Amino acid sequence: MPWNDSRLAELERFHTRQQRQVLRAFASHLQLVGLPHGEQVENAVARYKASGLVRFAEPDFLVTTASTLPNDPRFQDGTQWWLNNYGQNGGLPGADVDAPEAWDVLRAASNVVVAILDTGVRYTHEDLADNLWTNPVDQTHGFNALSANHDPWDDNGHGTHLAGIIGAVGDNATGVVGVAWRVRIMACKFLNSAGEGFNSDAVACIEFARANGAHVINMSWGSPEFSAAVSNAIWSAREDGILVAAAVGNNAGNIDLTPYYPASLDLDNLVTVGASTREDSVWSLSNHGVGSVDLFAPGAAIYSTAFGGDNAYASRSGSSMASACVAGALALLRQREPTAPCRDLVARLLATVDAVPAFAGKCASGGRINLRKALDRPSLTASSDARPLRLRVQGVPGHQYVLTASTNFADWTPLQTNTTALDGQWIFVDSGATNMPQRFYQARPGP
Questions:
Q1: Which domain holds residue 15?
Q2: Among 21, 118, 375, 437, whose CB has the most other CB atoms within 10 angstroms?
Q3: Is the pTM of this model over 0.90?
């Protein structure tokens, strides 16, 4: 019935009889009602709904900021735009990997070893030292295929920069933060001070990484020449569940037409990554290819650790940086699901991208990586006896999820989008399901 003075008066009498007090009234006729000590909120809500005096009644849920923010200075001041882009320095708000929201779910991959096949790593760097993998035999931090020893010292800087993107120590009030706050970085050097190396040395590094427990390998390098040796080594690494991130190269070309290896290899444990900008566009020099590139990731003006000193930092651009971003994401995915097949984790990464017009026709997924959507997997349970059906979505407190339904597992209809309460859940009552064919449900991260 319409809202009027008599109805308001009747509602006020109802409040009085129940010993409740109106704490706040809004222009829209919404009221905030205080309950007497000891009364259960759920019972009060049920009584108001049964009274016929209100259109709806609900608890005044406590909400919190849906983000986990590290205290690293260059994250705090917005320099690391690719982790949290709120429009600083001309960026497009949201053109990032949704890192703070993802870190609500998982921020450490302490059990995961990421091998960086590159120029080495400055392993004494203040923001990397605590996250270096250590060989239990000789306490070294990797392998040097050029000198055939275990000293992978970086004399170029490229590998050290990648290491910071993947796993600079998080929340240590120092420098920058990596995609994974905690991870075990294995430095495998096969590129010289000029950034050049041979496939045979790359294979030696892959074999070292495989023999010493690597879970993820980053390959931010390449060549137009196909190497069966490298292809076979990556395929063999797949047998051990090793995921590989590979950069697409920086020639502003279409690698569907002019392949770039190893990125152009068609292997289900390999993710091929192009570079995007703070405006969610393709970086000007990044290669692309709808049939060869899987997704894009931030790769322009990326601030990270540098090799010039133990407290050195610098900005670089390229698909190399984008690949490292994805390698960090793969580390967190592997930490979350240690036994999942490589193809499943790769598929999830591609299925949860943010679709962006600039990437349509430029990569297979048509989007840019979204770490939150890849990691945030809500659970869904249904009451077995209640009618109508009650569904419980359980996820991260303060995160938004979408509940969908289908009768055929092909066409999914959104039922409700909601934000979880402080206990990380919300309940949906599917009163419309009683007059419909049997249907199935799933919950996924919100937009």
A1: 5-51
A2: 118
A3: no
